[in-house]
Automatic annotation (TrEMBL), chains A, B:
A Pfam family matched in the record: ADH_N_2
Keyword field: Oxidoreductase
GO molecular function term, any single one: oxidoreductase activity, acting on the CH-CH group of donors, NAD or NADP as acceptor
Keyword Oxidoreductase: yes
Domain Enoyl reductase (ER): 21-354
Highest taxon, organism lineage: Eukaryota
UniProt name for this protein: NAD(P)-binding protein
SUPFAM superfamilies in the cross-refs: GroES-like, NAD(P)-binding Rossmann-fold domains
Species of provenance: Linnemannia elongata AG-77
Length: 359, 359
């Protein structure tokens, strides 16, 4: 605790709902210069000083009055917008997280975040304490990686490949391969000796995947027919498909996947936003070719944070530059609405992160 | 070998194709009194005396000129109709299967079957040597069980449950629960401590499942709405679905299955016979609820025959009458066409078997 120390918060709150319309910066309001007395921290509370913030497309739904799977409490007007961040504990009323602890947590779009109720056994906290070496950026691994390659996208890629049970020399097709999860899926599979094929939405991303991230092949799904591309790039067929899209491309993969092939389904963005679901017609091949479709939910696999397995597996690859992770880091929490809207409009490649403060 | 011994064969051959039409006995021809000299057995051959024959709906497709996954050689006119049987080796030119060996094999619809090419390493034989105790029917386990509960249907049920990875106290829903596979799936799951729900196509079968095979619940899918029935019979929801049907019922199960639920897909009879496939609309729940659909092909799991695991697991249950297997056994190979047609017309409950000869 730091009694009597006053800090100044800035928050980005939901000002209005977009509902089905295109999101603009008008949905947000920046509230600056709100004083927080760090000595006000209570038993079971921490106050966090936020360092990096992850901007994620999936929180778009919290700008609708209804919809999505998360509780209504995540979409209140005048509350900070939802986001995961890297932060340092600067005031603590909870022994497990003393001052100076580095964590990731749902910090929201603000400079300082108060988290309460930690000593209530009925409250589940999403606070993750980072390993000591997270602080050491001289290794070439930036702290921001704890909300990207070593955070939720990293876990989703790493655990997803475990669920798939990938084997060397087989071929994996990664949908949204240039995205925050896809780029890691491809590179981690490549390191394990697979042939890796990806799709992305621009020629620039396709080139990046092949030249910088060593994919064996990639294609622009906006300009090339997927059936032709997959036939050309995977002459021995597809054994695994890491699917974030669903719909038509899933139906195509079902048709052409090899016997005993496996599909990991981590979401079906093509089927969201209240659209009429694409009717899948090739499910009969599941029995005919002993194919599996495996559903994946990120929070079923948090043990790889707790037991350090994700860090042990991925951090050395980043340090040795055997894999790379593409981030777009912008400065200043007050600029978060602009970058969130630009991201939704597809203006950025790589994971979008706001740097709020130095460590 | 039994030099000079002449036996008299009777065969039931394909006389004409039914193609898309209803199969009648006109598709078959019985050819009696064909002499076979057992001493004619050559190197790499055996001659089998067939004891029991399995009549299976899935071989219906061999009465079409085209279609299905099996090779064209299984649908030749004037060849014995396709079927698995229990048989005894009565002449042998192959050391691994001496005279007196009990086997199951693709014997076809006939009294005696010659199998050649056994010493050709490029030929795959489906001959399975039965364990010594198969011969001992005093245990209460008839030899015919080696083409039912201890044969292909047994393996399909047993290995399918292994692939599902069932856990006690969870609920499994078995489609076609009164069929040759379904009745075993339900009973084996029940023995392992699950709550077992099944569907069947008549009130008689529903009663049989509950009263004789100890299902926790069953419903007649022809007279009751599946959604209402499953809600009523599985108040804690469905964790596993053993699916042989696909289509509309699979789409319903996807909608109502519990989080982390698993579906085993061993075939989609509703999607066969060139019908327009039913468009599945609920696949998005796979990611939302971490559900898996696991495709299953019987011949990927033959190791449970070879290593005795199926026999070790299921035979004691049959001997102790902890599970029962419903067979309809008819006498005489010449009657096989009538019973095959009756079976296709849904006139029988339980696995249909022809007894050809005494051991």
């Amino acid at each position: 605790m730091t009694p009597g120390k006053i800090v100044s918060n800035t928050r980005v709150v939901r000002a209005s709902y977009a509902n089905k319309a295109r999101v603009t910066t008008a949905q947000f309001r920046v509230e600056a210069n709100q004083e927080i007395d760090l000595s006000s921290v209570k038993e079971g509370e921490v106050i966090l000083r936020n360092l990096y913030l992850s901007l994620d497309p999936y929180v778009r739904f919290t700008l609708d009055e209804t919809g999505g799977d998360m509780p209504q409490s995540f979409r209140q007007l005048n509350d900070p917008f939802y986001g995961l961040g890297v932060a340092e504990v600067v005031a603590s009323g909870y022994e497990k997280y003393p001052v100076g602890t580095l964590v990731t947590a749902n910090t929201g779009y603000e400079k300082f975040t108060r988290i309460s109720g930690l000593n209530d056994p009925n409250t589940q906290s999403d606070i993750r304490v980072l390993p000591a070496h997270a602080r050491d950026e001289s290794t070439g691994v930036p702290l921001s990686n704890y909300i990207s390659a070593l955070g939720m996208p990293g876990l989703t890629a790493f655990a997803g490949l475990k669920v798939l049970g990938i084997e060397p020399k087989k071929t994996i097709f990664v949908g949204s391969a240039a995205g925050g999860v896809g780029q890691l899926v491809g590179q981690l599979a490549k390191v394990q000796g697979l042939r890796v094929i990806g799709s992305a939405g621009s020629d620039e991303k396709v080139s990046y995947l092949i030249e910088k991230q060593h994919f064996d092949g990639a294609f622009n799904y906006k300009t090339e027919d997927a059936r032709e591309a997959l036939t050309r790039l995977a002459p021995e067929g597809i054994d695994y498909y890491y699917d974030t899209v669903g719909g038509e491309i899933l139906d195509l993969v079902l048709e052409i996947i090899n016997e005993k092939g496996k599909i990991l389904s981590i979401g079906m963005v093509s089927q969201e936003n209240g659209k009429e679901p694409y009717p899948i017609r090739n499910l009969n091949v599941i029995a005919r070719k002993a194919v599996s479709i495996l559903g994946f939910i990120y929070w079923h696999h948090l043990q790889y944070f707790a037991n350090g397995e994700l860090d042990d597996a991925v951090r050395p690859l980043l340090e040795r530059k055997e894999i790379s992770y593409r981030e777009e880091v912008f400065e200043g929490i007050e600029n978060a609405p602009t970058h969130f809207v630009n991201m939704l409009d597809g203006k950025y490649a790589g994971k979008v992160i706001i740097k709020i403060a130095d460590l």
